[in-house]
Amino acid sequence: MKIRVAHYPAYCSKYNPIEHRLFPHLQRSWEGVVFANYKIVKDRAEQTRTEKGLQVVAWINEKLYQSGRKYSDNFKETMTIVFDELLPKWNYQIHPL
Predict the structure, then answer these.
(1) Rounded to 5 degrees, what are φ and ψ at 80?
(2) pTM score, two decimals?
(3) Is the pLDDT confidence value at 1 over 80?
(4) How far apart are CA 40 and CA 67, in angstroms?
(5) What is the DSSP string of the chain?
(6) Which residues contact 87 (CB under 8 A, 6 or more apart)?
(7) Cα separation of 49 and 29, whole Å?
(8) Which long-range CB contacts under 8 A does 52-58 form with residues at least 24 apart?
């Protein structure tokens, strides 16, 4: 299995290149809307577009995940980490050897 990890440090959205281009447009589409349910949030997000052609694709993940799972004892010995070119400290992929 290939695992992709992409995260940003807490309160450091300045590192997120998409956030600066998209969030102002999302905020405008959400102004004055009462979020009575998740579907409203999703629908309004998907209606968001920018003049440059950036658009939102959204889905509601309803999958239940088991908590408390641990990685196998030999995980570090059997996997290799490949760091991304963009923000390698925060984005990487884990591949089997």
Answers:
(1) -125, 145
(2) 0.55
(3) no
(4) 28
(5) --EEEE---TT-GGG-HHHHHHHHHHHHHHTT----SHHHHHHHHHT-B-TTS-B-----------SS----TTHHHHEEEEE-SSSTTTEEEEEE-
(6) 15
(7) 9
(8) 52/21, 54/21, 54/22, 54/25, 56/22, 56/26
| Per-residue model confidence as pLDDT tens digits over 22-80 | 888 888 999 999 999 999 999 999 999 888 888 889 989 889 988 888 888 888 888 89
Amino acid (1-letter code) at residue 20: H
Tracing tokens 């992409």 back to the chain, one arrives at: 6
87, 15 contact by CB (below 8 A): yes
The tokens describing 25, both together, are: 């447009």
